[in-house]
Each structure stands twice: as structure tokens, then as C-alpha cells.
Please model this.
Amino acid sequence: MRRLLTGFATAFALLATGGIALASDKVLNLYTARHYQTDEALYTNFTRLTGIRVNRIEGKEDELFERIRREGPASPADVFITVDAARLQAADDAGLFAPVQSRLLTSRIPEQFRDPEGKWFGYSYRARVIAYARDKVKPEEVARMADLANPRFKGKVCVRSGGHVYNRTLVAAMLHHEGEDRTAAWLRGLVANLARDPKGGDTDQIRAVAAGECDVAITNHYYYARLLGSDKREDQEVARKVGIVFPDQRGPGTHVNISGGGMLRHAPNKDAAVRFLEYLASDEAQAYFANGNNEWPVVPGVRIDNAQLAAMGSFKVDRLSALELARNTVKAQRFIDRAGWK
Ligand code: FE
Model:
């Protein structure tokens, strides 16, 4: 009995110090792979509007996924926020999400960016773009993603690992638009053109272009936006030397992926979870959410004040749905592996 009491005391002490709270507390337990400065305002604003406190557990995407899985029915997680359509769909495939029926969400978020059953919702989108050395490459030469397989770029392409989700979803989109044979040929051409074995993240590829290690690279747009907005001289120098192209403007449009989230099946605070998911689609939250990582809001017409994004300009977005992308990723990885893109 003594031990039991001590156990209770410890549990209460944890609660008091901001650990996981009880359902009656008007709290939302948010598991998130996001950690941006503007997110603070995002949560404070939600609490101000609803009186619901946001209890945040941060971690890497795949760690949080595993944690929710491990916790099972006992998981205190109400909402899971992560990046990449395939990760969201993987969480759904693992049975982690509960469907949310919300008129507000289905009317505000375009179909392309959400699961039709309401298991997950995209809140911002990011583009996979081509970075090029301004002094060696004309932007017209890399107007299409397909151009990176052109022998003209032999030994001149930098890109991160083929196992990374950003590249996997890019190939998933290509499989949809171009079919298997052309995608396989592109992958072979790309691998033959690599300047070096894939290593590092997207920013490393942009830096490698600036350093002259390669002429062209593939990157998510926000890594470039970050360099553009940096107050470090060396970052500004990189942005000055490197240009960005939104590829496939004359074709299906530039491939985009999402950041998003959904309500968990075992969420102890389901009402709070739905309110939070709806709140994220409001004009104000959309601006915070997207701006936090220099992404674009999914809700049409939301205005954001972001000098870097404004400088990068507008572009035609590939309208392939996030769900279709996610469904193609297993196949995409097979094609990537077969081409030897490590
Ligand atoms: Fe990223």
C-alpha cells in the first residue's frame, strides 16, 4: 500500500510539473515533429481562443510514430503532426488515426491535401525544386526534373539519399505521371550523373552547388528560403551563387508534399483534438503554421507575409493527391533501389 501511494504521488507530481495531463484538464496532448519559433504563437493563440492548454511532446518523425505505436491504447497522444504524405499514410496504415468528420476541414482544405476519410489533413505544402549554379547553368536547361538525367550533367548532380522520403515521394509522383519505363530510365540517368555518393541533407546539396562540387541539385524549397533569409554572410553568399527552378511548369507542375496531422485513435481528449485540427485550418493558424518553415498554407487565399517566399515567386503546383503519392511510395522505393540510388 505504501508503495502504491508513492506511485500515485509520483504520478501527481508528474502532472503538476507539466507531464501528461488527465482528460478532465482541458488539455491537448500534441505529439509533433515540428519545432519552429512561430509554433509558440500557434499554441498560445489556440489556448487563448479555447482555454485548452497544449501539452507538447516533440521528437523526430519516425521516433514519435514508434512511440505512439508502442504506447498503444494507453497513449496520451491526441494529435500527431508530422511531415510527408507517406509518413501520414503509414501512421494510418498502422491504425493510429481515427477519422474526423468536419465540414470546416473538408471545406477549407483542398481535397488534394487530405485523406478522403478524414484520417489526416495537410496544413502546409512544400515544393521539391532544382538548385543550379548561376554561373554554369541556364535555368531553361533544368526546366524539367527529367533534365537532371541528361548526359550534359554527367558528374554534376548532387542529391541526398534515395532512401529519404522526400526523394521517394518525388519518384512516386514521377511514376504516376511518366509511367514505369520512363521513371526507371530517369533514375538510371540520374545515378549515372551523380557528382558524388549521396550524403547529407538538402541544405548540404545547395551548399555543394555553391562550392562548385556540383552544378545542379534537388532540394526542398524551404532550405533555400532559409538561406535566403539568413543573416549569416556565408549563407547569403550561397543564395547569391545558387538559383532555384520550379520544375515541370509546362508539364504537370512542380511536385509538392505536405506537413500535416490527424487525431489519434486512442486520443483521451477527442473534442480538444478536433478543435485543434480545425483551428489549424483557420486563416491565422495557417499563416503561423506555414511561415514556421517557409511553406505555403493549403487553405486557398490565406495571406502570408514572407519575404523569402515572395522572392521565390509563384508556380504551378502538381495536382496529384497526397494520398495517391503516399500509395505509390513503396513502388517508388523499389525503383530507387533497383537503380542503385543509395
Ligand atoms: Fe525537411
